[in-house]
Amino acid sequence: MKSPTEEEFKESIKELNEYKNRLEKEVATISKKLKMPPEKIKSIINSHQELNQIEIILSKLIKQKENIASQPKS
What we know:
- By secondary structure, the chain is an all-alpha fold.
- Helices cover 81% and strands 0% of the residues.
- The protein has three helices and no strands.
């Protein structure tokens, strides 16, 4: 199986970031409709399991992309 290219990593990171931002916005919108205080909304977002998992995956993808970028081109 062929390893992903740096461009493929960039695209995956971009799409995952967009999804994460949409999810955060959705959580915040619902919380605001429930008239939750801003600090509670922030707490909910920070403890949201799916958002935390996305952060971990993003971190790994960024590290892998950096490893590819630092390798000499053949």
